[in-house]
Amino acid sequence: MATLLHRLGLGAVRHRIIVTVAWLLALLAVAFGAVKLSGETVNTFRIPGQESTTALDLMKQRFGDASAGANVQVVFQAPAGQKITDPAVAGQVAQAVATFGKLPGVVVASDPFDKQAPAVSRDLSTALTTVTYGVQPSEVTDEERAAITGALDQARKGSVTVEARGEALSNAADVGGASEGVGVLVALIVLALSYGSLIAAGMNLLTAIIGVGIGVAGITTLSGFVQLQSTTPILAVMLGLAVGIDYALFIVTRFRHELRAGKDVESAAAYAVGTAGSAVVTAGLTVVIALAGLSVVGIPFLTEMGLAASATIVVAVLVAITLVPAILGFIGRKALPRKLRDAAPSGDTVAEGRGFIRGWAAVVTRQRVISLVLAVLALAVIALPFVKMQTTLAQRSPEGSTQAKADAIIDQRFGPGVSAPLLILVDGPDAMTYAATVQKQIAALPGVALAQPPRPDQKQTAALITVIPASGAEDQKTVDLVHAIRDQVADGDGATVYVTGQTAISIDVSQRLNDALPVYLALVVGLAFVLLVLVFRSLLVPVVGVIGFLLTIGAAFGATVAVFQWGWLADVVNAGSTGPIISLAPIIIVGILFGLAMDYQVFLVSRMHEAHAHGAAPRDAIVTGFRQAAPVVVAAATIMFAVFAAFVPQGNDTVKPIAFALAVGIAFDAFVVRMIAVPAALALLGRSAWWLPRWLRWLPELDVEGAALERKAAAEPHPVNV
Questions:
Q1: Which of 313, 286, 303 is CA-nearest to residue 215?
Q2: Among 102, 160, 479, 644, which is most exposed with the fewest C-beta within 10 angstroms?
Q3: Topology relative to the membrane, per the entry (predicted)?
Q4: Which residues contact 260 (CB under 8 A, 6 or more apart)?
């Protein structure tokens, strides 16, 4: 692989004008496609074939768009000392409801004073109306959202307290525009400090932005043909920016090393692609496989997210091994600090003195038992909250928002179950006859606050029963109630019973995701082990790498649960709201962190393996490899941490916990696992760390260190540029 990439890098740097123009044309092409062909993303999570999803589709067929469309619940609370039914107060409510019913896109606004189905609290202080649209939440336009927001503001001018909640009220895909800017600024500072050259730092950042632009524009174009989740472009930006900067950093660092060793610009660029580029391709392939592997779970929206994000990684890798060497050909020795551009060649670009990095490696490898125990214990303690993790698909409202205020009023006046209604669809020729029996059976179940009378469709072939649980959407009792209805309420002759509604869909999807997580984790752990065996031709190095990855995952989940579920330091990171973690977060976090952790493992340990292959003693090889690779890994991890962390205070409620888990996971993996645990463990293993059984020596050699290039260089030395 190193030889092939060397040729590719040499071709890119020699034909740098063509390569650069080709990438710029590609960026313009996909940008044009994004503008002309993009479609709407969705915020709903559904799995075809599940009972709740099947029933929702049937319900829409039987009862029309209003039964499954987006909605906004508006709550009216009378002034202190008055009742919502008082004529003056009720008049304000009726006027507001009439206005809501005439808004663009609204199918119906329910009358809270309807005698057949009143929606007034028992103490007569509060009324509730549901404003229903004829489309899914993702199809509600910005103009329609602005109209409902304006109507709410108008209704608040009276004496009645008016608050609202619902998926049609806001766009869940909105992200603060400062997120990317903060990450890019921190990346530029770190790169400038690492390189000692603003030219090299700017070039690194520029190539990463081009890669991200192509990836995200491609995803945006794809949204016109495939229904994608609203979080997919956000994940693509986070991942593409982080790995794009890191992959370019790896190659530029090796390029600078080769320049200082005496190679000319073209040879240094080609050699950097052949060596560091091999590690980049291996690491990138790992991330791609991990993300594409989400398809094995069998959940369509997760498959689409994984494939779209993995495509962004592919672009980042291609940019790193083609565009980066091409740009390096333009800037040449300006990639070095000014004082080193005309310096005499040096065989080693890393200071031989004690230095912090060298001293750190010496201490960790000498005090290996203490270092390993402390690192493992620290991560294990941070991981403890993981055992209490709860998941849900229900979107929580930011504290202080009108949604949060509406939640509080409704829970207090109507009960928490009003926020988590279950819809029971009885479908078939005898639906109306059997629906009354179903309603009585459900009303008798524990945990049911109210089971409303059946509501027939126009053809009398289906009936809809609204069930209000006694518990909220995130309560385990509501989950138990859904299972109890399915287990204890049987189908009748000529009538099939379904449990659906957003609460039931959330429960079903969360359960499917939770069941898939252990399978997916086993898949990526097995993949990590096989990959590392092939890269390092060792059994114990992969074991150390896999255990380190599991510690990283545990600590990342533990910290995320503590902050976003328990509320520890929630204000510090602007968590917005706390409670169960969004269901799709754990499996996405596992996939992304796996790939990124393997990036650092491959880049760090490959330098140790390279030193050992050149005859260094086991401990000396660890110190030498650490001394060469650790500064780059630290810089890369700092950049990646900054990119992910920038999305925490500014992101939406779906992105916040994912970005936080990725940020702290990168920090734990780079600064604790790779900087302490891995070198300590390898030092403890000694020479046996690189042992491979004889019966496995037939495995192919990936040569990520560029041994083939070294043999070629020894036979045909490159010209020296002095």
A1: 313
A2: 102
A3: Multi-pass membrane protein
A4: 336, 340, 343, 345, 346, 349
User: Interior CA angle at 53 toward 403 and 173, to 5°?
Assistant: 40
Q: According to the model, what pLDDT value does residue 684 have?
A: 93
Given a contact cutoff of 8 angstroms between Cβ atoms, the answer to whether 70 and 262 are in contact is no
Query: What average pLDDT score do residues 28-44 get?
Result: 82
| Average pLDDT for 39-61 | 79
Tens digits of residue pLDDT in 148-193:
999 999 999 989 999 998 877 765 444 445 556 777 788 888 888 8
Q: What is the DSSP letter of 500?
A: E
End-to-end CA distance of the chain: 30
Residues 404-438 have pLDDT tens digits of: 899 889 888 988 888 888 999 999 888 888 999 99
- Answer for the pair 59, 424: CB distance below 8 angstroms, yes or no: no
Question: Which helix (H) or strand (E) is 423 found in, with range?
Answer: strand 422-427
Contact 510, 430 (CB under 8 A): no
The residues facing 464 across adjacent strands are 425, 455
Q: Residue 331 above 70 pLDDT?
A: yes
What pairs with residue 500 in β-bridges?
Answer: 423
Q: If you search the block for the tokens 């991330």, which residue do you land on?
A: 287
CA–CA–CA angle 492, 69, 450 (5° rounding): 50
Q: Are 219 and 235 in contact (CB under 8 A)?
A: no
**Per-residue confidence (pLDDT) for residue 711, from 0 to 100:** 58
Give 398's DSSP letter: P
Residue with token string 């949060």: 404
Helix axes 678-685, 618-645, angle to 10 degrees: 160
Work out the burial of residue 398: count CB atoms within 10 Å of its CB; fewer than 13 is exposed, 13-18 middle, 19 or more buried: middle
The chain-wide mean pLDDT, for the chain, equals 85
Q: Which residues pair with 492 in a beta bridge?
A: 495
CB count within 10 Å of CB 636 equals: 27
272 Cβ neighbours under 8 A, 6+ residues apart:
9, 251, 252, 254, 255, 257, 258, 325, 328
Residue 693 to residue 33: CA distance in whole angstroms:
52
CA distance 500 to 176: 34
Length of the chain measured in residues: 722
Q: List the structure tokens of 449.
A: 């606050």
For residue 284, give the nearest of 310, 251, 323 by alpha carbon: 310
CB 423 within 8 A of CB 502: no
Give the Cα-Cα-Cα angle 511, 598, 380 (nearest 5 degrees). Answer: 60
Q: Which amino acid is at 142?
A: D
What gap in Å lies between CA 54 and CA 500, rounded to an integer?
8
Q: What is the pTM of this model?
A: 0.82
Q: Is 249 exposed, middle or buried (0-12, 13-18, 19+ CB in 10 A)?
A: buried
181 phi and psi angles, rounded to 5 deg: -60, -45
> Is the torsion defined by CA of 444, 450, 453, 454 positive or negative?
negative
